[in-house]
Amino acid sequence: MNAENFGSSERLVAAAYVRQGAQGRRGHELLLRALLEQGKCPEDGWDESTIELFLHELAIMDSNNFLGNCGVGEREGRVASGLVARRHYRLIHGIGRSGDISAVQPKAAGSSLLNKLTNSVVLDIIKLAGVQTVTNCFVVPMATGMSLTLCFLTLRHKRPKAKYVIWPRIDQKSCFKSMITAGFEPVVIENVLEGDELRTDIEAVEAKIKALGAENILCVHSTTSCFAPRVPDRLEELAVICANYDIPHIVNNAYGVQSSKCMHLIQQGARVGRIDAFVQSLDKNFMVPVGGAIIAGFDASFIQEISKMYPGRASASPSLDVLITLLSLGASGYKQLLKERKEMFSYLSSGLKKLADTHNERLLNTPHNPISLAMSLKNLDENNDVAVTQLGSMLFTRQVSGARSLVNGTFSEVKDRMFSHLPSLQLLLLNSNSFTVIRDDAFAGLFHLEYLSPFFLLKMY
Ligand SMILES: *Cc1c(COP(=O)(O)O)cnc(C)c1O
After folding, report:
1. What is the pLDDT of residue 394?
2. Ligand 1 pocket, 178 CB below 6 A?
């Protein structure tokens, strides 16, 4: 309803009542205006009615929703199913144009606006989460591994001689494959054991760079969020090495947005040295369906180059989901979740410590890992791998997902390379990422032992 239509309404309903209605609408519109003017995540979450109003306003700006639109091209935002149209709030055109995922589409002003606003709101949240000097970012409708691939492919043009990626080891397949798929050879740098922690071997990184020659190296590919007993890479030292040898630095920050420590590492790395881009998953950090990531960095033009590498148009769904989520939560709601996760982590840590003590096991001392915990399973049955595997399945049947119980020396194969998961320990690994909810329900019978308290039932949202 605009002013004219409110005026016409007064012929049917008393003017005073219509005025109240107009005032009501104005309340929603002021929120929309603040978002459009500032491009920031609103402090307080919006009501669903405001969000729906906003999405409908965006949708009717797109040509597929123009009344009497006669699309005579091959890509006119046609959908056969009303269910599909509603699932996407009638935003059918996607984002980007053939040359650039961040480009505006003339026939889809609403979708283009959605795309720009999402990137701007997400940038605001990255700052709020601890990387204050980030200058540019974009949501890309691919998960983390493929988004890392896109970063490596962008660097290829800048470093035509480069064949290698220096990669402090992390036993996660998609980050390994992100380099292989881009056509580069990962140079695995083994971590060093310091106390219980597996940490970046800085000397080995530097020695490898010298041995291979800086110009033959595409980049250093480091990792923040990871399973204990590995801890986040020494980002500051790596960033300094990258600056000294003039080598790009790409950071895999898969589930690090929710950890102020991981974000602080990125901020510090960029302050003292070189970080070209950092990549984070949408589902792991923002509680949306799998399918998107954020590529962010400190040099706006490099981030734009990456967005221009993306061939063709792209799905708007990941952008839409994260925008709806952040508008619903508001900055205050997201901050609250970050705070709760931190509290849950110390609760989980102290509870696991008690549990480990009770059973003559050890909670590994991994203070540099702000997200993940590891507990030994030495006495579960030292000579029986089956018991450890069984613990994993017991947790699973008790609806605990996300925990891993690892038998010493398990191997997995990625593209002809064997990965040994961990050194010399049977471990139970628990993460508090993705906003874990810990319920106080004890589970009886786990470990075939007496009732344990406190034990935790972990459940993801
Ligand atoms: C999730 C994750 C990835 C990427 O996985 P995608 O399925 O591509 O999102 C990479 N590295 C780590 C450490 C991860 O946790």
Report:
1. 75
2. no
Listed by start position, the domains of the chain span 3-90, 109-329, 334-460
Atom of ligand 1 nearest to the CA of 145: 8
Is residue 226 in contact with ligand 1, taking CB distance under 6 Å? Answer: yes
For residue 279, how far is its CA from the centre of ligand 1 (angstroms)? Answer: 10
What spacing in Å lies between the alpha carbon of 144 and ligand 1's midpoint? 5
Two structure tokens written together for 322: 């994260």
CATH classification of 334-460 is 3.40.50.300, yes or no? no
- pTM of the predicted structure, to 2 decimals: 0.90
Measured from the Cα of 293, ligand 1's closest atom is: 9
Paired residues of 230 in beta bridges: 198
**Signed CA dihedral, 19, 23, 24, 29: sign only:** positive
Helices (H), 257-316: 260-272, 282-286, 300-309
Task: Give the whole-angstrom CA distance, residue 309 versus residue 155.
Answer: 10
Fold category of 3-90 in CATH: Arc Repressor Mutant, subunit A (1.10.10)
Residue 335 structure tokens:
């901050």
Q: Is the CB of 254 under 6 A from ligand 1?
A: yes
* Spans in the chain with pLDDT lower than 50: 409-425, 432-461
> What is the tens place of the pLDDT at every residue in 192-242?
989 989 999 999 999 999 999 999 999 999 999 988 888 999 999 999 999
| Domain 109-329 top-level CATH class | alpha beta
Residue matched to tokens 């049917």: 12
Q: What is the pLDDT of residue 439?
A: 38
Ligand 1 pocket check: which of 152, 170, 175, 262 to mutate, most ligand atoms within 8 Å of Cβ? 175
CB-ligand 1 contact for 147 (6 Å cutoff): no
Eight-class DSSP state of 108: B
